[in-house]
Design a protein that fits this description.
10 strands; Jelly Rolls; alpha+beta; 9 helices
């Protein structure tokens, strides 16, 4: 399992490995360091616990994940992992852009929770990281769909009432009346206030701008921060990496 085994050695760190042919197809490995705020991804993601245990939250839904368990999260859904304090914790996350998946299927359109031996998952991830053409990518996406169907189940129906209205994540203007009304609405829907949701949207926009090669000072201004230092501090809280570290991976 070469790359992934090496990435998870060490203390308190996060490493990101990208497929050189499909850069947005990536794997993140972390040990005792993680995002400390609810966040979203513009990709489909699968997070797997290598060691320890964590409370995972999607909107107002919560459950515990332990070693060898995983959660699959569609793009745009707020989520947060809160590992058990005082104990070692390590994880791996696979990120796949939605255009490479059939998001009409329940395996990719719904959050799912499951468990599997790490070697099986690592072998599957390795195949994605070695893809060099669309045919290989499509084949591995089909294998991933079968894997999810066999080794995971969708969350219960109460996990996120009306969460399909997740387009509110990236809106700056309120269609819901007063700020208080918007806060109550988003708090009920996602378990988050509108201000935090707006910040999540800025962080995802910043990641996109980084992938386009923009200067960090420009990105900070584009995302509405008063200076680069403030942007860097918020970015690290939400991703576990400084902007410079993120751009080097």
């Amino acid at each position: 399992m070469g790359v992934l085994e090496k990435e998870t050695n060490g203390r308190r760190r996060i490493s990101i490995t990208q497929n050189p042919h499909y850069p947005r197809l990536a794997v993140k490995c972390g040990e005792n360091q993680y995002s400390r705020h609810s966040h979203v991804h513009q990709t489909w993601s699968l997070g797997y616990v290598l060691q320890g245990r964590t409370l995972v939250s999607l909107g107002t839904w919560e459950s515990e994940l332990t070693e060898d368990q995983f959660i699959a999260v569609p793009s745009g859904i707020p989520h947060l992992c809160s590992p058990e304090t005082g104990n070692p914790f390590s994880f791996i996350v696979l990120y796949i852009p939605t255009e490479y998946l059939d998001i009409r299927t329940p395996e990719f359109s719904q959050p799912r929770i499951g468990g599997i031996d790490s070697k099986v998952l690592f072998d599957l991830i390795d195949l994605f990281m070695q893809d060099t053409n669309k045919s290989e990518l499509d084949n591995n996406s089909e294998n991933l769909q079968k894997f999810l169907n066999k080794n995971s189940s969708p969350l219960d129906e109460e996990w996120g009432e009306n969460l399909s209205e997740k387009e509110i994540l990236f809106t700056q203007e309120s269609p819901y009346g007063s700020r208080f009304q918007l806060y109550r609405y988003t708090r009920k829907l996602f378990g988050l206030g509108q201000k935090k949701i707006s910040t999540i949207g800025k962080m995802e926009h910043a990641k996109m701008l980084m992938s386009e090669g923009l200067d960090l000072a420009e990105i900070a201004v584009e995302c509405g921060f008063y200076d680069q230092s403030h942007f860097s501090k918020v970015f690290k809280l939400y991703t576990g990496l400084t902007p410079t570290q993120y751009m080097k991976k």
